[in-house]
Specification:
The protein is mainly α. Helices cover about 55% and strands about 0% of the residues. It is globular, with a radius of gyration of 15 Å.
C-alpha cells in the first residue's frame, strides 16, 4: 500500500471497498505485519494464500501486538 502513491486511507478503500477505514485498526495491523512478525513468518503467510493459515485472522492470532501477561498471585 505504501508504494501506490495514494494516502493510506485511499489505498485501503481501493483494496477493501466494502470495509470502513479505521485509522487505529490499520496502524495496528500494519504494526503486526511489519514489526511483530518476522520476514519468514510474513513469507509463509503470503505463501499460504487463501487457506486457513493465510487468513489475517490466523496471522493476527499467531502474531499478537501485546503479549499476554502472566498472572501473579500475591
Amino acid at each position: 500500500m505504501g508504494r501506490s502513491g495514494l494516502s493510506q486511507e485511499d489505498a485501503f478503500h481501493e483494496a477493501f471497498p466494502d470495509h470502513p477505514w479505521v485509522r487505529r485498526a490499520f496502524q495496528d495491523n500494519k504494526k503486526q505485519w511489519l514489526q511483530v512478525a518476522s520476514a519468514n513468518v510474513r513469507a509463509e503467510a503470503v505463501k499460504a494464500g487463501r487457506t486457513c493459515e493465510g487468513l489475517w485472522r490466523w496471522f493476527s492470532r499467531q502474531n499478537p501486538i501485546t503479549k499476554k501477561k502472566d498472572l501473579v498471585c500475591l
